[in-house]
């Protein structure tokens, strides 16, 4: 049976990660896959994570099954983190949370759930969006439509085009939004634009689906969730996929959460029972370790304060790198947008041939689209990368 299958190329982000690992050049620089790196070029385990792991090792008394929803304590902590401490939506039982294998698990289970709600569901995604959104959502059988988001000439949000396109959506269509730190562009909606999208969602009867993969790495934990929270407070239903990969640095532990918000507690509870059945038929139950770390940190005042401090430091460092990178590139053109954008990524706006030149001649890796992971730069590599870009331009 297998012999009929043709070999498939890897996902471009993962392929680039592998090519980088296999590159023997010592001076190579990785601005490809979205992982945070410190000034020494390492992706550290956060101090609070280390502490929490030590505590778990001491206190964990069983490895018995957790159940399809995962840990309820993790779910409550994530609801507070995303929706805000003391959120009335959570208090009123309108938000159900399940623990998922990473943000990807949350996205895919949401897509499977949406197929249950509506057999021919359509989800609108931004152009561009994270490459893996398309297989994650389309693979579950959702119809995918795109709304223009980034103006390729200015590398800023083309909000008028976005609204005009979403005005074509039909009642019951799903709109995928990036909660903050848009991947791949770094160009986020302003709070006023979130308000306008909320109005459109209400007027057209659309279902907002927010991918929150970088909370805390744009402008801070609270500011990054402001648009989402405004929307959640006004719409009857909403879906949120949250990831702990970046803000807890738990990438390989595959830790995420999926939240369903319904119009009433009983609607939410029924919807959640369907979701749990979807989960049972896919992976049965989520892995426990990463979520136990998050639950331990968020449930302990001192660990939480330590984590927040370290995360705020990472966020500040990215903002500083953005300003320094834009400045270093200034002689080659207007790269001021890099300083204005948020999160790990920005497009440089250079051609695939120039991207290839940077990789082959200088050992500098970025996606073919010219997406760079700004958080992969440091004091030593930033001038090297800026000089190489200035040269090829
Ligand atoms: C990225 O966009 O580089 C990250 O979200 C990692 C991934 O899995 O693609």
Automatic annotation (TrEMBL):
Claim: DNA-binding is one of the keywords in the record: no
Keyword Signal: no
Gene3D superfamilies noted in UniProt: Aspartate Aminotransferase, domain 1, Type I PLP-dependent aspartate aminotransferase-like (Major domain)
Source organism, top-level taxon: Bacteria
Domain Aminotransferase class I/classII large: 27-389
Pfam families: Aminotran_1_2
Cofactor(s) recorded in Swiss-Prot or TrEMBL: pyridoxal 5'-phosphate
GO cellular component: cytosol
Keywords of this entry: Aminotransferase, Pyridoxal phosphate, Transferase
Entry-linked PANTHER family: ASPARTATE AMINOTRANSFERASE, ASPARTATE AMINOTRANSFERASE, MITOCHONDRIAL
Subunit-structure text: Homodimer.
Name assigned to this protein: Aspartate aminotransferase
Organism in which the protein naturally occurs: Marinobacter pelagius
Source taxonomy: Bacteria, Pseudomonadati, Pseudomonadota, Gammaproteobacteria, Pseudomonadales
